[in-house]
Amino acid sequence: MNQTPKNLTTPETQENQEPSQISDRTLYLNGQIAEVSWFDDDITPQLFKDELMSGDGNITVWINSPGGDCVAAAQIYNMLKEYSGDVTIKIDGLAASAASVIAMAGDKVVMSPVAMMMIHNPSTVAFGDRVDMQKAMAMLDEVKESIINAYEIKTGMSRTKLAHMMDAETWMDARSAIDLGFADDVDGKLDEELPKMTFSETTVMNSLMDKIAKRCRIKHAKPKEETKPTNTVKADSLEERLFLMKTWRD
After folding, report:
1. Is 6 within the bounds of a domain?
2. Which CDD domains does the record match to this protein (predicted)?
């Protein structure tokens, strides 16, 4: 008897129920995406197809995957795009690499407030001479274009911008993914007024320099009695040096 893989689960088949009685189904994509699974610990197109076609109605697909085989991901993407019911994608952990392509198949993409999405260039392993390497590079270029197709359909962004984002290996939290069009909503409420706290070494150094320079100006403003020349550094000179250091840091 075939057992349901632990990384792909769904309610019992609802074939004998009336359409009005069919409830939404939930599938889980947890783990690596591969063409073939030797130990039922990977997500494969065939395993996903078996679960997807085991019932009717709208579905919710939860994704937590680091990615994997881009061809296998393309097959799953196409299955979801062709599915007759509404498809809601929910990302509760990570949708990276090939898994982000699958996420683009959702009619609605919802991310957990703590979920992440990552897009980058496809990669491969190649052996051979210079001609073989050139063929591998040309193949990767075409694979990248096919991946951009999925991102472009979902986001409406230009292909050039999407290509640059993939080159840079772009990580997005829920808010960034929504702003860029990769996701539609967040599973929960995000406070739009949350302050953005950032740390900058230059900012800290400049603030310190400003405080020191201000202290020097205050001390310099006080009247001083005439004293014999010494080897100590004058306040004007110190302030000038601090200004030069601050300017250099910027």
Report:
1. no
2. S14_ClpP_1
Residues 31 and 108 in one domain: yes
- The domain of 216 spans 201-221+233-249
Do 132 and 214 have their domain in common?
no
Q: Which residue has the tokens 């299955």?
A: 79
Q: SS3 breakdown of the chain: % helix, strand, coil, rounded to 5?
A: 45, 15, 40
Identify the band that residue 6 occupies on the pLDDT scale cut at 50, 70 and 90: very low
pLDDT tens digits for range 220-235: 555 555 555 555 555 5
CATH classification of the domain holding 180: 3.90.226.10
Distance, in Å, from the CA atom of 46 to the CA atom of 2, rounded to the nearest integer, reads 13
Predicted TM-score (pTM) of the model is: 0.69
Asked if 151 contacts 119 with a C-beta cutoff of 8 angstroms, the reply is yes
CB 181 within 8 Å of CB 111? no
Note the pLDDT tens digit of each residue in 107-128: 999 999 999 999 999 999 999 9
Q: Are 101 and 147 in contact (CB under 8 A)?
A: yes
The verdict on residue 8 lying in a domain is no
Amino acid making up residue 1: M
State the average pLDDT for the chain: 82
138 within a domain of the structure (yes/no): yes
In order of 201, 208, 216, 227, 233, the CA distances from 221 in angstroms are 31, 20, 9, 16, 16
Calculate mean pLDDT across residues 11-25: 55
Kindly indicate the confidence band of residue 42, based on its pLDDT and cuts at 50, 70 and 90: confident
What pLDDT score does 25 carry? 96
Please give the tally of structural domains in the chain: 2
